[in-house]
Amino acid sequence: MPEPSETTTPQRPLDADALARYAVRDPLEIIQLLRMLVDKRPLLTAFIDGGESFVTLALALTDDGAVIVDACPDEVRNARAGSAARLVCVTRLDNVKLQFALEAPARIVHAGKPALRATLPDSIIRLQRREFYRLPTSQAEPLVCVITHVPEDGRRQEVQVRIVDISGGGLAVLVPPKELRFEPGTEYSQCSLRLPDGNPLPVRLKVRNLFEIEKANGVKVLRAGCEFIGLSNQATARIQRYMFKLERERRMHDEH
C-alpha cells in the first residue's frame, strides 16, 4: 500500500438514510472531494457489504467515471471485496468526516499492483463536529441575516446581523448592541438569510450560546451561536452549495 499522509482508526459506517440531508450530490462536487482524497491520501476504512472492513487509499479517478482504491493485502478478504455488492468507505479529510458507497467493485491491476475499481458514488455524506461542517464567512463579501422582531409595544422591527460562520445546522452572528436581546433559548421565527446566489432564504433560529470575543481592532463584542429550526432539505442543500462555493474560492485563492 502507498504511504498515507496520516493514520486513522476504524470507524463504523454512518446511517446514510438518516443523514441524507448532509449528502453532497452534485457530480462536480463529488469529483472534487474524491480528487482531494487522491491528492491528500487519508486512510479510508472500507466496509464489505456493511460487515468486515479493511484499510485502503483512494488511488485515482479515471476519465471514464470510475474511482480506484487500493486492494486489501489479505487475499481472502480482497476476494470478498471484489465480489461484494458495495464497499462503504469512511474517512476524515481536513477534520471533515466523509462517507460514500462504491457499488459492485471489481478487482483490477493498477500501476502493476492489485486494486479495486468502481463507478463514482452518487453521493458523499460530509460531516464535521456535531454532524455539521462550520465555515467562516467571507469578510470581503459579508453574509447577513435579517431578523424580524415584534417587541411588546407591537412595532415591527427588522434588524440586520452579521454572520461570522455558517453550517448546515446553524450559524453564528455578531450580536447588535441594542436592537435585540440574544439569550440562550430565545427563538426568532421570522429570519431571512441573505445568500449571494439567489432570493432571501426564510429560516427560524434558536439561540444556543453566547460568547464574548475581541475583534482585530480590540473592540469586544458578543457572538451568538444559533441553531436552524425545522430547516427543509431544500434549504439545507442551498446552504451547502454556498459553503462549497466559498470553500472552493478560498482554496483557489490560496493556490495562487
TrEMBL record:
Keywords: Bacterial flagellum, c-di-GMP, Cell projection, Cilium, Flagellum, Nucleotide-binding. One of its GO terms (molecular function) is cyclic-di-GMP binding. Residues 128-244 form the PilZ domain. It holds the Pfam family PilZ. GO terms for biological process: bacterial-type flagellum-dependent cell motility; regulation of bacterial-type flagellum-dependent cell motility by regulation of motor speed. Residues 22-126 form the Type III secretion system flagellar brake protein YcgR PilZN domain. It is found in: Bacterial flagellum basal body. It comes from the Bacteria. The keyword Nucleotide-binding applies. Its main location: other. GO terms for cellular component: bacterial-type flagellum basal body. Monomer. Interacts with the flagellar basal bodies. Belongs to the YcgR family. Acts as a flagellar brake, regulating swimming and swarming in a bis-(3'-5') cyclic diguanylic acid (c-di-GMP)-dependent manner. Binds 1 c-di-GMP dimer per subunit. Increasing levels of c-di-GMP lead to decreased motility. This is Flagellar brake protein YcgR. The lineage of its organism: Bacteria, Pseudomonadati, Pseudomonadota, Betaproteobacteria, Rhodocyclales. The gene is ycgR.
